[in-house]
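User: Let's play a game. I give you a shape written as tokens, and you guess the letters that built it. Ready? Here's round one.
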């Protein structure tokens, strides 16, 4: 019996140890992909004088819009083959690309512009932007010429500002949107029918709490919208560095100084819980105080609502363990 017991604990020890090491390996791999990316962004900056945080923000933006990105894929920017090679050309030699007015460049020094090579792709993108100049305004114009979509340009510009401010691309912290040392309750109400304003479905999770409970940013991002709307009352919208728009509604008020364009991090207080909305500006008290929290994903073409509940559960656990 004793023998069995110790065998068991020995096996358990082996299992635990190997779990610990595989977790550690996974974490180290994650660290190293961020390090690899950062090294490539900085190298591209050195070659083009386009600041690394813009190059990083373009890559980050594109990583969110494709469904078939591999976990270990270092660079995610994809450039149209016709633009890369030049119309009518399919050779990746620099001479041919130049002859056919393609934009493909050789970043890794193999004398070929390879559409699938991260360094070649980064140098090509940064060289494209460089044509428009190096100031913030020039880069904005370059991005607009490339993507031809205002929201895309704004998302990339704001992500670049976040990367620059924190001097990092490894920004994976999260927080729960309501201060967890206050009383609150929530359940999954996503998709429920809503009476006010016709047949709407409920695009978010309601977190019930007392008036004045602090409301916090859940992510790194930039304040995109602030003010009154008919349903949401006093609300605030923050777009994070993953092309996700976070919508906080029914606030009783805003934290002092919060304004559109401001960079926020997880845990920054942005306002407090209230019951505003369902009427003209200032309408309040038509329902119990709660935070309505919604999440919207943008894929470069359109935006859609998805269920924030599983994320809230996860961030609540993260907040409690901190
Ligand atoms: Zn709601």
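Assistant: Ready! My guess for every position:
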């Amino acid at each position: 019996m004793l023998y069995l017991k110790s065998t068991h604990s020995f096996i358990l020890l082996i299992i635990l140890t190997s779990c610990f090491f595989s977790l550690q390996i996974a974490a180290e791999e994650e660290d190293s992909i961020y390090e690899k990316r950062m090294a490539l962004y900085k190298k591209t900056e050195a070659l083009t004088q386009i600041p690394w945080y813009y190059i990083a923000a373009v890559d980050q933006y594109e990583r969110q819009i494709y469904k078939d990105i591999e976990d270990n894929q270092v660079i995610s920017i994809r450039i149209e083959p016709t633009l890369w090679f030049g119309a009518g050309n399919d050779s990746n030699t620099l001479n041919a690309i130049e002859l056919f007015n393609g934009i493909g460049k050789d970043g890794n020094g193999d004398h070929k512009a390879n559409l699938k090579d991260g360094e070649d792709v980064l140098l090509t993108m940064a060289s494209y932007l460089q044509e428009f100049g190096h100031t913030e305004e020039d880069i904005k114009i370059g991005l607009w010429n490339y993507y031809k979509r205002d929201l895309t340009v704004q998302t990339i510009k704001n992500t670049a500002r976040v990367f620059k401010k924190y001097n990092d691309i490894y920004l994976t912290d999260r927080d729960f949107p309501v201060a967890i040392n206050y009383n609150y309750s929530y359940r999954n109400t996503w998709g429920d029918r809503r009476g006010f304003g016709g047949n709407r479905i409920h695009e978010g999770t309601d977190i019930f709490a007392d008036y004045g409970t602090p409301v916090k940013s859940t992510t790194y991002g930039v304040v995109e919208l602030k003010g009154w709307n008919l349903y949401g009352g006093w609300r605030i919208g923050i777009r994070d560095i993953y092309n996700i728009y976070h919508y906080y509604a029914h606030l009783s008020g805003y934290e002092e100084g919060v304004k559109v364009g401001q960079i926020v991090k997880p845990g920054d207080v942005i306002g407090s819980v209230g019951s505003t909305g369902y009427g003209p500006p200032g309408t309040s008290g038509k329902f119990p105080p709660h935070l309505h929290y919604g999440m919207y994903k943008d894929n470069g073409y359109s935006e859609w609502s998805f269920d924030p509940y599983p994320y809230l559960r996860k961030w609540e656990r993260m907040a409690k363990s901190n």
